[in-house]
Amino acid sequence: MHPAEIAQRLAELEHHLDGHVRYLVHAAQACPFGGNRDWDAVLARYGQSHDPPLKRLEEAQAAGQSRGATASEVRRAAEGLSAQAGAELERLLAPLPRGPAGAVGHPALDHRIAALRAKLSRVPDEVGAQHAANVRPPQQAVAASVGSVFANAVATAKLTPWANVKLDPARVFECRACGAPQQVELDFHCRYCRAPMQG
Ligand SMILES: [Zn+2]
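Above: inputs. Below: predicted complex with zinc ion.
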């Protein structure tokens, strides 16, 4: 393969990776508190399985999230994405003659390959940081809501709807329709899709 062709394929791989990172970050914050079936499908796409409903609720609650998937599931998905893109990079490089330390012997290409590997290794931390910023309500908004006793409860409930919910392990289920983890409420309907929680 000509160096220019390899450079072109590396650029495509990087572009592809950036697209997956955006997709992952969006999907992780767009799902209900603790996830749902759409998010499970994203995890599966990156070769990962999801946690039980109680763990999902406990983790998202402890993190003070207002919505979205848990940090540990998001990290696993990002690690899976990074590993898949890394495997794609190795497939691309496999047919090339390699020198010491795996160098392809073309300084500009070797520099580019090293930069891409470094970028791949940063994916889990970067996705995690973006996700944390997306799903935690701004602290100043929470602090401001404490200003008025009357506004406080309503505002805090909006910012962190699960903040003061005491989880009862025996009553935590996964909605059969959308897969969102939650406690069976008095009306026995999923708070996200309104389907019956158990029938
Ligand atoms: Zn549901």
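The CA atoms of residues 141 and 147 lie 10 Å apart.
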